[in-house]
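Ticket #465: bound-state structure for alpha-L-arabinofuranose.
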Amino acid sequence: MTISLSRRAFVAGGAALPIACAPMAAHLPLPSADAGPVNPLVRQRADAQVFRHDDGFYYLTGSVPEYDRLVLRRSKTIAGLATAEERVLWRHQASGPMSGFIWAPELHLIDGRWIMYFAAGPSGGGEDVFRIRTFAVVCDGPDPMAGNWTVLGQFQAPWDSFCLDSTSFVHRGTRYFAWAQREPGIETNSNLYIAPLASPLTLARPATRLSIPMLDWEVRGFKVNEAPAVLARNGRLFMTYSASATDARYCLGMLTAAEDADIMDPRAWTKAQMPVFVTSGETGVFGPGHNSFTVDEQGRDILVYHGRDYERIDGDPLFDPNRHTRVQRLYFKADGSPDFGVPVGNGPLPVRLLGPDGSALCCEEGRLFVGAAHLASTQFRMIEDAAGIVTIQPILRRDERVTVLPDGGIGLARNGASPAQRFIAHRSAEGTVSLESAARRSFALSASRTLALVPAPSATLWRVD
Ligand code: AHR
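RESOLUTION: The complex was predicted; output attached.
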């Protein structure tokens, strides 16, 4: 018998809740730690948070399919997280309010203590398993991978209601808490709230409600605003959040406030009327969301999120285990706001290839040119084989490759691994690359408005971004 609950429908009494068996996508080669990240970065880790600490390590935590434990892994590189050893910090209890689901952990260093926030509910089946509330565990030492973790307590939320997906950030010297919660009297599954912290589990003042799911893309399947994440850039605070059901309709929205505004005033925040990051059939990523932010080893902004590589889900999406951790570059628009583009899909991270005047190699509706276009049309995956030969794939046209055409022009053709699609990448320490044709040696792709094969090395240096 299925009881349909507020946001989570489930089979009542199922102590061992079913985990849907979904088709496993073809496994990509395991990335080496010195190579760049390959998506999916970590399989079956949803709600992923990557925390870059000043010890030089990246720490990754997230929800596990069994929802029964808190895990942590670390690496000196983002790519290395894929194969890093994972430690179980804490397991749900045998009974009580933290004996059932364990959701969406986040690691924070607060006043010198490692604290991990998470959402938890009781076990035992029935309606109670979704009595989700927010708790924290704390580490007894300086190394979160080696210390002992014990329960710090329950977050003292404004209401005794469905409460999850908390995050914390410091803004202008004050530490804030942002989270998702169901508010009595508002008929939604969860809304977004913010308040300064007095202590890790108590608020310094009454919370401000920042957003209620009301737009059509926020209420598909369930009325959800959850998983806030904050990025401070270019004189503003950008708070992304996730909306709708956790299937292919799941997506990111964004609130923006001026850095010097009173961020406890809801009027300081502007909600984007359209989602900023959604499912992409072209790249094969469905239900992208529950993001966090970090920077890569070169200090460049990185978006961390989860997404499946198939659309159809049998049963409740909450119990489909294949929300994998994914990462990609986060670029910015001319106005300084984040440009999320599209979820870039499985494989090595794509790059943009820029000519000396800043114009980009673009692919729009099957046409290759050098100029300007939406971000996703300027992203190309440089797929390199063991011999260092590169084929160049527009991320929106997975089955096609940049090809030297019979007339000597440059276009796209279905991936046939022909010499006309193979290039030798001559990379420089300055971050430029020349792409010599394997079919016509000593000729390379011109990095100019006129896309052609020209005698290397004249005008053939692309800046890789
Ligand atoms: O992944 C478990 C829960 O489902 C997360 O807390 C929430 O963000 C998601 O929708």
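RESOLUTION NOTES: Residues 46-47, 63, 103-104, 119, 164-165, 226-227, 242, 246, 290 surround alpha-L-arabinofuranose (CB under 6 Å).
TICKET STATUS: resolved
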